[in-house]
Amino acid sequence: MPMFKKSLLILLVLALAVLGGTMYGYYREQQTIALDPAVIEQAEAKRTVTVYVCGEVKKPGLVTLTEGQRVADAVNAVGGVIETADIDHINMAALLEDGMQVRVPLRIGGAEERSKSAGTGKNAEGQINLNTATEKELQELPGIGPAMSARIIEYREEHGDFQNIEDVKQVRGIGNAKFEKLKDKVTI
């Protein structure tokens, strides 16, 4: 019987060692898993975006900001806008993306002139103003449907007013052929 007790004791010690090792390994694994999300959050928090801010701002240039900031933050980082800026035609709430250009447009005409032209997108000759026309008015143009008129307005909001009628070709979906059909029917 003493031999049986020794064997049982050795078996019990081995079982406790295996159980202890298993528990220790599980504990270490849980600690590692708990630390991983914190490391990932720190890495994400340090991401930056670099944008170029130009137009009617005090100090145009490159600005590096943290990811998730808005156009207004980039404009403020270069000293803000100057008195000739047209802040009604730039989306200050848009999220910044790395490598983008933020152009603050020049205000054309006084407030009275803008309010008169904002009422209609057509001039006396019946031409449609690309800078003031509504989606419905833009759809009167040949080859411009609801999707294309929405793209024109989206482009106008992101980049400011069109400086000449050829700028409308920068809108995705408007090429030379479509431009030729509508160039005599539009103005800025």
From TrEMBL:
GO molecular function: DNA binding
Transmembrane segments: none
Segments forming domain Helix-hairpin-helix DNA-binding motif class: 136-155, 166-185
Gene Ontology terms: biological process: DNA repair; protein secretion by the type II secretion system
GO cellular component: type II protein secretion system complex
Signal peptide limits: none
Protein name: Helix-hairpin-helix domain-containing protein
Species of provenance: Selenomonas timonae
